[in-house]
Request: fold
Amino acid sequence: MISLVIPVYNEEELIEKLFERTIRAMTSFTDDFEIICVDDGSTDHSLQKLIACHQIDKRFKILILSRNFGHQAAYTAGLSHARGEYVAMMDGDLQDPPELLREMHQKLRDREFDVVYGKRTGRKESFLKRQLIKSFHYVFKRLSRIDQADNVGNFSMMNRQALQALLAMGEKNRYLPGIRFFIGFRQGFVEYNRDDRDSGTAKMNFKKLLALAFDAIFSFSNLPIKVCLYTGLAGIVVFFLAGVYVIIDKLTGHALYGWSSTVLSIYFLGSVQLVFMGILGEYVFRIYRETQNRPVFIVRDFLD
Ligand code: UDP
Ligand code: MG
Reply:
């Protein structure tokens, strides 16, 4: 069986289209599938429309969350209810073409890969949004040291083994594309041109996207806290050089009375504080790593 997980939040304009297109795309290559639409606390008529679709075709299942938990939480909820041997994730606004699932499934079924994700060759959103997304991907790729992370989002399909590894990641602030890379396994991709959303407006507004970007960066990198330590260490070097200058100034009698001691203590305390904040930060980061409760290793196979 193949499961397709779709988060939906206030998408009443396009539910019928979503229903028809995904059912058509799935039936084109399999008879055995389920589509799990996760209603992420929609406040419009999305839920009624989803239920109407469910009445027409029982393979179109609806998982209803008690309120809006956000797009990554909705995906996680859907994934943990999926029963398929292969499980796919796709946005509900038809930006990701469901017709591509066939090719993803092909690659998985041929046992070539365990995870196949969609790689965007282009996208049709507004210029500003594209630039913001591009800069996020640039920073995230650098900081997380995940090279494939460029132009890749949630759209993907994986087998059960990979899904189990993904669900075993215990963190609460989730950035699924990052987690999906973290679990490893054999990963492949299919390329596609990302459409603009079919209708309606983006439900991930700027604030939500920014929060997601921070979740991604903070959960995959300790560089933000390292900046503190590095500036502290650099501060010590500068303090030392400046200190020499201040003392020479004092000895040659140029310095005003009281200036040398004041300046020296500011330099000294400033850099010492930064260094120790960096060290504290390192401990905080390690505690954070522990609470993320990620598996220490993931086995792909055991040839016994
Ligand atoms: N979504 C959701 N919960 C939210 C926000 C969005 O389930 O709090 C869904 C939304 O209905 C859509 C998908 O997540 O199916 C992606 O949202 P959107 O298109 O707004 O994101 P973008 O394409 O701008 O990243
Ligand atoms: Mg979208």
User: Anything to note?
Assistant: Residues 142 and 299 are 27 Å apart (CA to CA). Strands lie at 2-8, 33-39, 60-64, 86-89, 115-123, 152-159, 187-194. Residues 259-292 form the longest helix (34 residues). Residues 2-205+295-303 form a domain with the Spore Coat Polysaccharide Biosynthesis Protein SpsA; Chain A fold (CATH 3.90.550.10).
